[in-house]
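$ ./design --mode recover --in tokens.txt
reading tokens...
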């Protein structure tokens, strides 16, 4: 019996060691390389998009990555990802961290680790103005969203009779709405506000006050990369305490911006 217990302990320790080795230590590795590689969106203002003047990727998510990298004392390399590609890119070590409007949920948390919530929003819809007053108006209709997003699953649960069409990204879904191929586009309100703000014919569309879920965003890291996760969480809490996190929010969503939203959250230690 004692021998069996010993063998079981060795097996468990081996598994734990293997898992730790698989995850690696991004904090140490990135400092050695001098670079933190971040997976970000590049066509989703104001979270991540290519600035017309600088031709650089900028946005809310990018500012958080830059702050974390600065704290680490390294440079940042930004790699564009989609909702569907971001987790595989992380798991295959092509990127070190996901900063790409990623909602935290139990299913994803089984595969990767998340930071504390650094942005909070809710899932809504863009529709043609006056066409949708309630969810009943979308029953049996075609609704566009992005592949690999939580929005896909949420809208299927909220409106089972709807046909969900999944595109590579949200701008493509909005183009389908403009062309009359879908009756609505659904994702997080903050993303919808960014899409609508950039639309030349935005007066023809609206975001009805119909929310079907809460969407807390987290920065994604490899499962078991504990040292890095703890560092990122500590940095986020420090940014909240110093006012830097609020300043970043106001920069992209404040009253003077075209994406104006109220900051109805604070970054706190998740329970």
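writing sequence...
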């Amino acid at each position: 019996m004692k021998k069996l217990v010993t063998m079981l302990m060795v097996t468990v320790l081996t598994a734990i060691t293997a898992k730790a080795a698989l995850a690696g230590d991004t904090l140490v590795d990135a400092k050695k390389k001098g670079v933190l590689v971040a997976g970000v969106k590049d066509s989703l203002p104001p979270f991540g998009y290519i600035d017309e003047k600088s031709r650089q990727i900028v946005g809310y998510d990018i500012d958080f990555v830059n702050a974390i990298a600065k704290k680490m004392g390294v440079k940042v390399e930004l790699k564009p990802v989609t909702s569907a590609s971001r987790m595989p890119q992380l798991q295959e070590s092509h990127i070190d961290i996901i900063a790409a409007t990623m909602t935290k949920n139990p299913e994803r948390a089984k595969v990767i680790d998340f930071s504390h919530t650094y942005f909070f929003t809710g899932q809504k819809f863009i529709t043609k103005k006056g066409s949708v007053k309630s969810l009943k108006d979308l029953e049996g209709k075609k609704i566009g969203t992005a592949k690999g997003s939580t929005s896909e699953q949420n809208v299927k649960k909220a409106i089972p009779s709807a046909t969900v069409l999944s595109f590579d990204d949200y701008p493509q879904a909005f183009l389908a709405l403009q062309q009359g191929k879908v009756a609505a586009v659904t994702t997080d309100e903050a993303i919808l506000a960014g899409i609508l703000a950039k639309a030349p014919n935005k007066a023809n569309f609206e975001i009805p006050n119909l929310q079907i879920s809460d969407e807390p965003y987290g920065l994604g890291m490899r499962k078991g990369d504990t040292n890095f996760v703890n560092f990122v969480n500590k940095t986020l809490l420090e940014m909240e305490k110093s006012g830097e996190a609020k300043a970043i929010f106001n920069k992209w969503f404040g009253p003077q911006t075209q994406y104006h939203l109220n900051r109805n959250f604070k970054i706190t230690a998740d329970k």
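exit 0
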